[in-house]
Write a structure and sequence with these properties.
Blueprint: H1 2-40, H2 50-57, H3 59-65, E1 68-69, H4 72-77, E2 82-84, E3 86-101, E4 107-110, E5 116-121, E6 128-129, E7 134-139, H5 141-163, H6 170-190, H7 194-203, E8 212-216, E9 221-226, E10 233-234, E11 241-244, E12 248-255, H8 257-260, E13 268-272, E14 278-286, E15 297-304, E16 315-332, E17 337-339, E18 342-349, E19 352-357, E20 359-364, E21 367-372, E22 379-381, H9 385-398
Antiparallel strand pairs: 1-19, 2-22, 3-12, 3-16, 4-11, 5-7, 5-10, 6-9, 7-8, 9-11, 12-15, 13-14, 13-16, 14-15, 16-21, 17-18, 18-19, 20-21
Helix pairs in contact: 5-6
Length: 403
Amino acid sequence: MIRFKNNTVLLLMILSAFGLSTLTACSGSSDNGKAKAASDGGEDHGDGDDHGAEAEEGGDHEEAGGVVEMDAAERKKQDVKTAILGQRALAEEVIVPGEVTLDLYRTAQITPRIPAQTMQRHVRLGDKVEEGQSLVTLSSVEMADAQGALIVTSREWTRVAKLGRGVVSERRFIEAQVTAQQARAKVEAYGMTEAQIDAFAAKGDASKATGSFDLLAPQAGTIIRDDFIIGEVVEPGRVLFEISDESNAWVEARLTPEQAGHVEPGASARISLDGSDWREGRIIQIRHALDETTRTLSVRIEVDNADDELHPGQFVSAAVNIGETTTVLAVPAEAIVLMNGSQTLFKVEGDELHPTAIETGVNRGGWVEVTGGVNEGEEIVVSQLFLLKSLILKSKMGSGHGH
C-alpha cells in the first residue's frame, strides 16, 4: 500500500510537470500571435511582464502609435477629404434666436386689377413656375369692353395710316392714332401683356372680345399661396397666388441694442436649425426701431437656401459677429475627433494618416484655434474622422491580448 501510494504520488508529479510544460508552450504560442498582431498594427509589446509597463503608459500612447494606411485613390473612394493647415480670421460672436421669413425681394403676389371671375387654374400650391408662365384664366365684362374697343380702334388706325396724311386731315390722323394707343393702354392696364395684346389685335374680330385673359407669373419661383376656387368672382387686389423664389431665405435675428451696435450690414453670420449644422449667411439690414415688447433690434440675415430646407416660420439659432477679428491657426471643428480624452487631428504623411493630439483655443464660427501639436502648412484630414477612428480601434481589437 505504501509503495502504491508513493507510485501514485510519483505519477501525479510526472503528470503535473507534463501539464505545466504544455501550458507554458501554449502560453508562448499565444504571446507570439499577439506580438505579430501588434506588429501588424504598428506596435511590439514583447512578453509577459511588459504588459504592466504598457498599462502604465496609458491608452494615449496606443492611439498615438496607430496609423491608417490609405492612398489618395482610396481616400477619394471613402470621401476622406484633406486640407492644408493655415491662418484664419476668427471673430467674436453671439448666439441669438431667429426666425426664417420669406425673401420679400424675391416674392410676388398675383392679383387682378379689375373685377373678374376665375375660369381655369393652370398651377397649384407647391408648383414650380417660370417667369411669364400662365397661372389662371379670368373673365371680365370690363375687359371684354376694353378688348372690343381695342379691335375697333386698331382697325380704324390701320385704315387711316394706310391712307396717310395726304388723304385724311391731320386732326383725323392724330385722333385715330391716339384712340388706338389709349385702347391698347387700357387692356394692358387691366392685365394683358404686350404679347397678348398683339396676338389679340391681329385677329381683327370684335366677336373675339370675350373678356377672357390670363394672369402670368412675374417671376420664377414656387407657388406658396393658392387661395381661390373656380367660378369665384374676385375683386381688384384680391391675392390669388403668391410666388416666392426660395433659393434664398431671410432670418430675422433679435439682438440687444448694445449687440446690434457692433454689427454692420455685409458682416458674416451663421444660422442653424439644430444647433450643430450651420450654414453661412450675411447681414443685409438692421432695423432702427426697437421692438416694443422685447426691446430688441431685428437684424436681417440673408442665407442660401438652394436645398430648400428653410421655410417661413421655422425657429433657428443665429450666430452674429459682434467683436474684433483675430487671425490664428485654425481648423474646421469637424476635423477634430476625441481619442482617449484628447482632441485629435489626422495628419497626412504620404499614404499614411497619423492621429495627432493637439491643443486648442477658442471655438468660433465652426472653426477651432489650434495652439499646439501641429504646424501651419501641414496637411490634415477634414472629413470622415470617425471612419478613421473606427479603423484604428478595429485594428487594436484585432491585435489585442487574450489569455
